[in-house]
Amino acid sequence: MGGKYCNAFRGLLVLAGTITMMMAIGARAAASPDYATALSKCILFFEGQRSGKLPSTQRITWRGDSALSDGSDIGMDLVGGYYDAGDNVKFHFPMAFTVTTLAWSVIEFGESMGPELQHALEAVRWGTDYLLKATSVTDVVIGQVADPIGDHDCWERPEDMDTPRTSYAINQTHPGSEVSAEIAAALAASSIAFKGSDYQYSSALLERAKQVFDFADKYRGSYNSSIGQAACPFYCDFNGYMDELLWGAAWLYKATNEDGYWNYLRNNIHSLESIVVRNINGNSFVGASFAEFGWDAKHAGINVLVSQWVMNENSSNADPFILNADKFVCSILPESRSKSVSYSPGGLLFKPGGSNLQHATALSFLLVVYAKYLEVAKKVVRCDYVVATPTRLIDVARGQVDYILGNNPMGMSYMVGFGRKFPRKIHHRGATLPSIHAHPQKMGCRDGDYYFKRQGHDINELTGALVGGPAEDDSFKDSRYDVGQSEPTTYMNSPFVGVLAYFRATSSK
After folding, report:
1. What is the span of the domain harbouring residue 373?
2. CA 449, CA 381: separation in Å to the nearest integer?
3. Mean pLDDT in each 10-residue stretch from start to end of the chain (509 residues)?
């Protein structure tokens, strides 16, 4: 058969398969979810994760003050910040990524947030106020607070904690470039988010970002070695720190427009052209770097972020940042022959490993942001024979959002407190145990075991929390024992804030 006819026939077969897949993935209820309410709850969640002295404006009122002596072991004030998930440890690597993506959500979609913009900025500031404390000593970055082994051994309210609150420092002889550079990225991105509303604070964030980035770059090394068991196996850096250094440089260039940061990106771009190694349940998983974005791997985020100004300055698609951003899109599109993700029968995007919604939310955020950049530049993405318009990218992201909010075979929203049916037995200490206001007596390390094991619903609602999500067959256990499905994390919610803001604005048009 002639080549062009072969290609045409192949195209028809692929089209038929694509239509079948998209009927499953695109199947949604007639009415869209209430994106505005979902956005409000998504931001509210961060108040439930606050550590430190709570303000009078605190809206999740079952929480109380906690960890008010953090940093005292090294003579620093490290009160504040966020607990990353259902435990009471302050892991600064994922916390900084949470702040970076929250700030990016505000930068791209703040104008679409309506009255929730102020709450989003408050969520960013709760993080940046703390990161300023963690970087207040020159050439020292605090990489983590609390001994995770001791913490994870107790099912205990944050208000009652009596496990070791050890402070783990990064310095010249014990470097941690990944956590330091991620903090620099968070501070730089946040400086942009606050530039229009608090210029003095924005300037302070930017100056600190520069200092921390210089420290991360000058004293190179992984916090895996410097912090050791405090970081691993919980939030090990599996793929090296060069992506964080470029991520930090990219945000500093966006914040300053200084040539030095742009030259740093150009001179080190080769380090992004690599494979990424991730740990999946104790096993190594190797993937293409351009397809990865999350608390550990920043590659796709760098390419999408940088593509904005490259598109504006260069009409060619041959720029490596654009090429890799396009390849990222092709790795996601259901109809793409080069996709590296899978989809459940109901249409949820999956990558290997637990807490899968971290991938669905982060990658959907990049799709929406890149679609926005493509629209302005009047460009499309070509995946072999597939031509993906910005609208197509938005449609894929919308499918993920709608699935998460309840348009799925289980009919379940995976955001706590949203919709009629949502997870009610989440893996989260504060939600599971009686509030300190209802039960002011101290509860010790083992006193919480009864509440963890009981079959009843959570005593407190952690409104807005996204949990890890369903299995690849769309089933969901709603069990505290299934950590991968039922535990919430800040870095699942943070990119979802931007995605929900976008759909809140566009669905009302």
Report:
1. 3-507
2. 52
3. 36 39 43 94 98 98 98 98 97 98 98 97 98 98 96 96 96 97 98 97 98 98 91 89 97 97 93 62 62 94 95 71 94 94 97 92 98 96 95 98 98 97 98 97 95 95 98 96 97 98 88
User: Looking up tokens 């302005």, which residue turns up?
Assistant: 376
Confidence at residue 312, expressed as pLDDT on a 0 to 100 scale? 75
Q: What is the pLDDT of residue 318?
A: 62
Q: Where do runs of H (alpha helix) occur along 314-387? A: 320-332, 357-377
Token code pair at residue 88: 């009471």
CB 332 within 8 A of CB 344: no
Sign of the C-alpha dihedral computed for residues 268, 269, 273 and 279 taken in this order: positive
Type of residue found at 471: A
Q: Quickly list H helices, 26-62.
A: 35-48
User: How many domains, the chain?
Assistant: 1
Residues 67, 72, 77: CA angle, nearest 5 degrees: 75
CA distance 87 to 448: 13
Give the closest residue to 489 by CA, choosing from 401, 428, 412, 400.
428
Give me the residue label for tokens 């904005």: 308
Contact 357, 34 (CB under 8 A): no
Catalytic residue among 119, 299, 427, 428: 427
Tokens of 143: 């990489």
- Residue 474's contacts (CB-CB under 8 Å, 6 or more residues apart) are 344, 345, 346, 348, 408, 409, 410
The enclosing domain of 71 has a CATH number of 1.50.10.10
Other CB atoms within 10 A of residue 9 CB? 11
437 in catalytic set: no
Q: Which long-range contacts (CB under 8 A, 24 or more apart) does 107-110 make?
A: 107/189, 107/192, 107/193, 108/369, 108/372, 108/498, 108/502, 109/498, 109/501, 109/502, 109/505, 110/193, 110/501
The structure tokens listed for 318 are: 């041959």
Q: Can you tell me the distance from the alpha carbon of 198 to that of 118, in angstroms, rounded to the nearest whole number?
A: 12
